[in-house]
Design goal:
By secondary structure, this protein is of the alpha+beta class. Helices cover 24% and strands 32% of the residues.
Length: 62
């Protein structure tokens, strides 16, 4: 998500950002790593808050 001029990764259920980046590609890369490690869905939002991409890393996803 883009907030206060920075791209942030937030885990589901958390109200605070896990980390923040100046560049979207850096935030996406770290968010992808976090999602893969936790085997959860990775949702990438555009600057306006709309969902741009989704990728599911669940263990049994098809």
């Amino acid at each position: 998500m883009f907030e206060n001029g920075r791209w942030k990764n937030r885990l589901v259920g958390s109200s605070r950002a896990a980390n923040a980046h100046d560049v979207k590609t850096d935030a996406v890369a770290q968010g992808r790593e976090m999602a893969q490690k936790r085997k959860v869905e990775h949702v990438i939002r555009n600057r306006d808050g709309q969902i741009g991409q989704r990728r599911d890393y669940h263990r049994d996803s098809r």
